[in-house]
Design a protein that fits this description.
Elements: H1 6-11, E1 23-24, H2 40-44, E2 50-53, E3 79-82, H3 85-101, H4 115-127, H5 129-133, H6 140-149, H7 165-215, E4 225-229, E5 238-241, E6 249-253, H8 261-273, H9 277-291, H10 299-315, H11 325-336, H12 340-354, H13 360-376
Parallel strand pairs: 2-5, 3-4, 4-6
Antiparallel strand pairs: 1-2, 5-6
This protein binds zinc ion.
Length: about 375
């Protein structure tokens, strides 16, 4: 299959950050190429919309509000949104270092900087050379840095002793330059997205979360998903990793890539499913094991994409609307991922379940049998 799927199996044994991980990303539209890939991981994720990594189910997460997080219109029991200076600068520096290494245009051209600014900015980019090669999703160090920065509320100086001093120094020296040239623009875009889509997210998030959990008979982890808005999320529209303590996960979402209202809601609500990835994969793998058949390692993500999109569509009252853009994007993405047959099978076996016409056990049994059969009989 075009859809690269070996990561999940491999990473289940890699145990990054304590989660057994299927780290896979990929999702959606396939039209979004925001930066050229260089590492194998990012090559695999070029045509993606959301990124995610599986995390173990945590039943003992404590509900809490991230320190210093402002209340935003989109804050709900499901999500807490924030607009964090350091998370934005970190992602932007990494992105710029990556673009520079690939000889791609920089979003902050060096020609716009004064001599002193340029020296400091280039030194910061140099410090990010290694991080620029790492995956935002799959690399334990980057996930850890992201979660630490997400808790920092002092925007004047970082002063963290939990991050490599070289990176702290880079962030501190780059901060005034970023603040002078771009932060206001990025901050306003982040705030605008939250203010624009927050009310609809607030209205529907609880119902969508429950519907996703119910569909897979999963138990959502306690705690809100911490959502950072940040312009530079690598090749994805949004991605979700393990989050800071007390959260169900940490999503980073790029507002400019989610400016379409329908895409925006489809993206953010889909990320909920990634807090239940392990339970979902266990459910699917368990049925495959019972039948003694091998399934495409990506099947679980195809199923979560299909399922969450259908749930969001239903919740938004868009069923039967031929102009609903996430539907077209999903079909296109499935095609580009080599999932046409999976899509056909889900329409045939999984949709009736989502519509309450058959049981989970029956739908899962039939779907897996059909998918496995097709996988072993390529045409
Ligand atoms: Zn996803």
């Amino acid at each position: 299959m075009l859809y690269k799927n070996t990561m999940r199996r491999n990473d289940r044994t890699s145990k990054t950050l304590g989660f057994c991980r299927c780290l896979m990303l990929y999702v959606c539209t396939a039209t979004l190429i925001v930066q050229a890939p260089s590492s194998p991981l990012e090559r695999m994720s070029v045509e993606t919309v959301c990124g995610m990594r599986l995390r173990p189910t945590s039943s003992d997460n404590i509900r809490m509000t991230p320190m210093g997080t402002r209340s935003f219109p989109g804050d709900t029991a499901v999500f807490i949104f924030q607009n964090n200076f350091w998370v934005n600068l970190h992602h932007f520096l990494r992105g710029e270092a990556r673009r520079r290494s690939l000889n791609l245009p920089l979003e902050l051209p060096l020609s716009k900087l004064s001599v002193n600014e340029r020296a400091a900015w280039e030194a910061a980019l140099d410090a990010y050379i290694d991080l620029a090669k790492r995956s935002l999703l799959f690399d334990a160090m980057l996930v850890r840095i992201d979660n630490i920065l997400a808790r920092v509320t002092d925007t004047t100086a970082l002063k963290s002793n939990k991050i490599d001093p070289k990176i702290v120094a880079a962030l501190d020296s780059a901060a005034p330059i970023y603040r002078a040239h771009l932060w206001d623009q990025h901050r306003r875009a982040n705030d605008y997205w939250i203010a624009t889509y927050g009310p609809a997210i607030r209205q529907h998030a609880v119902a969508v979360k429950k519907a996703i959990a119910d569909a897979f008979q999963a138990i959502p982890p306690n705690g809100p998903i911490l959502v950072d808005l940040a312009r530079d999320t690598g090749p994805t529209l949004a991605y979700t990793t393990e989050g800071p303590a007390g959260t169900a996960g940490h999503t980073v979402l790029a507002p400019q890539k989610n400016s379409d209202p329908e895409v925006a809601l489809d993206t953010i609500f889909h990320e909920i499913s990634h807090t239940m990835d392990n339970q979902i994969t266990q459910l699917i793998d368990g049925e495959a094991k019972r039948q003694g058949i091998k399934i495409p390692p990506d099947l679980w993500h195809a199923m979560t994409l299909y399922t969450t999109s259908e749930i969001v569509k239903r919740e938004m009252g868009k069923q039967g609307d031929p102009t609903y853009r996430p539907d077209a994007a999903r079909v296109e993405m499935f095609k580009k991922s080599g999932w046409e047959e999976i899509l056909f099978d889900m329409e045939k076996f999984w949709r009736p379940y989502l519509e309450g016409k058959t049981s989970l056990q029956s739908a899962l049994h039939d779907l897996i049998q059909s998918v496995a059969h097709e996988s072993s009989n390529p045409t």
